């Protein structure tokens, strides 16, 4: 049975230092949070026990703690953080979080600015491997920031992050030592997202790193490839799974093997063996 019951908690005020501008980080400001939890309250009503529901006082304190914690740039990120806090209570099926920033630095008169996110507990979770590549700018920094973005992505849990492997750029005509070297790595994790939705988010993250999609196999600030998701086989114009070139790329297989020594590439075999075969030439 999916519950239609709700707990509403509105106007929770807390002080935080979230924002893009240095002044916001320095001075801080007030944030106001509204929450709507969807959960089944029938057992609480039948037993009259607070154990059978979400204690609204504790919830409010957890929201304040989430606002007061380390600053982030966006109220979108803060709203996601608060949604995660609300969904920690097993009873909660879904949550709508609104974060208001009434003192935001907007240079015209305005009443309020807010974001609202709706998140629900999801069903199946599949293992996933994402490859990261970067050969422009500060590769170590880009790698760390890309991993941080993946760790914050709703619907993705990052379990293992490989080290950053420095590799020779592979072009259409083979390895090219004259091109900037790549930093490559992988993250191994779990996702509740559909592969199309996950890839869409990966492409969005790439875009925020300023990648210009000029040339296939060309130099790039950040490349995120979905390597495998569970044992799915997909062959669509915008999405091929497993990634069609993963088995022939040491720059994917080597960090993957480091992150998961038992890894298997569906349809191709053990990553250990694939890498050994590549290295044997
Ligand atoms: N498993 C996948 N992971 C990432 N992108 C994929 C995948 N399958 C298909 N694509 C599509 O490929 C496009 C990626 O092209 P991109 O410019 O990143 O290629 P590339 O990185 O130059 O080459 P390669 O795909 O060989 O790494 C995306 O727009 C995406 O729709
Ligand atoms: N070493 C290395 N070479 C590449 C890489 C990469 O990630 N590492 N990515 C490419 C296109 O995705 C093309 N060539």
Automatic annotation (TrEMBL):
InterPro entries: Dihydroneopterin_aldolase, FolB_dom, GTP-CH-I_C/QueF, Hppk, Hppk_sf
Organism: Amnibacterium kyonggiense
Chemical reaction(s) catalysed: 7,8-dihydroneopterin = 6-hydroxymethyl-7,8-dihydropterin + glycolaldehyde; 6-hydroxymethyl-7,8-dihydropterin + ATP = (7,8-dihydropterin-6-yl)methyl diphosphate + AMP + H(+)
Name this polypeptide is given: Bifunctional folate synthesis protein
Enzyme Commission number: 4.1.2.25, 2.7.6.3
Alphabetized SMART domains for the sequence: FolB
Highest taxon of the lineage: Bacteria
Keywords for the protein's UniProt record, in alphabetical order: ATP-binding, Folate biosynthesis, Kinase, Lyase, Nucleotide-binding, Transferase
Keyword ATP-binding: yes
GO molecular function, one term: 2-amino-4-hydroxy-6-hydroxymethyldihydropteridine diphosphokinase activity
The Dihydroneopterin aldolase/epimerase domain, residue ranges: 7-119
Pathways involved: Cofactor biosynthesis; tetrahydrofolate biosynthesis; 2-amino-4-hydroxy-6-hydroxymethyl-7,8-dihydropteridine diphosphate from 7,8-dihydroneopterin triphosphate: step 4/4; Cofactor biosynthesis; tetrahydrofolate biosynthesis; 2-amino-4-hydroxy-6-hydroxymethyl-7,8-dihydropteridine diphosphate from 7,8-dihydroneopterin triphosphate: step 3/4
Family statement: Belongs to the DHNA family. In the N-terminal section; belongs to the DHNA family.
Function as written in the Swiss-Prot or TrEMBL entry: Catalyzes the conversion of 7,8-dihydroneopterin to 6-hydroxymethyl-7,8-dihydropterin.
Example GO BP: tetrahydrofolate biosynthetic process
